[in-house]
Amino acid sequence: MSLIGSIVSKILHPFGGGSAEAAESKPGASGGPAGGSSNPASTATTGGSAAAPAGGGGSVDVEAVLNEMASKNPQKLNWRTSIVDLMKLLDLDSSLHARQQLADELHYSGDKNDSASMNIWLHKQVIKKLEENGGKVPADLKD
Q: Annotated region Disordered: where (predicted)?
């Protein structure tokens, strides 16, 4: 699975429903989570919060899901502005190499050795992909 697919899946489909490939193959898709299997590990991650709407309709509250995850993480991670912290929160590799791979997936055209500029761009693109795939994103995180 791609990195962007993993990110979208962990946030928008924490209960195992839906397809992470939607983030890759259907960038304009806006489907909500499917009410599918119950995965105890995922339930613990989101705490069963209102982030995942009942009945499989509506959109996932990205802020609620990530705040819930952050509240249970021993590290103080600033997922709102840092792609590195967002990836750490999702238990994904946040190394420069992994971020460069994510940049390739998202068609970054800038200098991948300028990690500060790339990181800012990556964070904005990830938030955009979450919204395109049915996530409810806070207004302050949108462009």
A: 18-59
- pTM here is 0.73
Beta strand residue intervals within the chain, DSSP E: 60-61, 135-136
Q: How many helices (H) and strands (E) does the chain have?
A: 7, 2
pLDDT in tens, 18-40: 544 444 444 443 333 333 333 33
The pLDDT of residue 105 is 97
Other CB atoms closer than 10 Å to residue 89's CB: what's the count? 21
Is residue 98 a contact partner of residue 3, using CB atoms and an 8 Å limit?
A: yes
Residue with tokens 């990690």, as numbered in its chain: 115
Rounded to an integer, what is the distance from CA 94 to the centroid of its chain? Answer: 13
